[in-house]
Amino acid sequence: MVQRAENARERFEAAAFKLFGEQGYAATTVPDIAENAGLTERTFYRYFPDKREVLFWRATDHQISIRNEIASATCSRHPLAMVAHAFKSVAPFIDGHRPIVKLRQALISSHSDLQERELMKLHALASAIDLTLQQRGIRPSPARVIAEVGSAIWKVALENWRSDENEASFANHLDRVLAEFQTEFHLLV
Question: What pTM value is reported for the model?
Fold first, then answer.
C-alpha cells in the first residue's frame, strides 16, 4: 500500500519556490525539488505531472471559493460587482503569501510555457464564473461577457498588486480596477 507523505503538496511547493527564487525556474529540476522537500521524485509525480504544475495547483481551490461566493451572493448586486466581490475570497491567501505569489507572477511573465498555462487557468476561471452566473439565472451571452470582463479585472488587479511598492491588499486592487472600469465606461455596478 502507498503511504501519503504529510503535506506533500505544500512541501513540494515550498521547495520549488525556494529553488525557483535561488537558481531560477529553468535550472530547477524535479529531483532538485524532491530532494529539497525531503521527499522522493516518485512521490512528486504522485502529486504533480511536472514542475510547472507546482505553480498552478491551487487554482482549482481558488476557483471553487470564487464560485461559492458568486452562488451565495445577494441578488441585489450587479453581476460584475458580484464577481469582483467573489474574488476577494481569495485575497487573504494572496496577501498572506505575497513573496510566493509575486515570484509566481514574475516567473509566469518571463516564461512562455507558463504564460500559456496561466491563460488556460484564466479561461477555466471565466468558464466557471459563466456557469455559476447562468445558474443564478443570468442569460448565457451576458453571463459570458461578465465572466470574461471579470477575468480581465482579476488579471489586471493581480498585475497591479504585484507591482505595488506600497503593498496594498489584493482586495484594494480589485476595488480600484472595478472602480476605474466603471468610471471609464460610465457603468453603474
Answer: 0.90
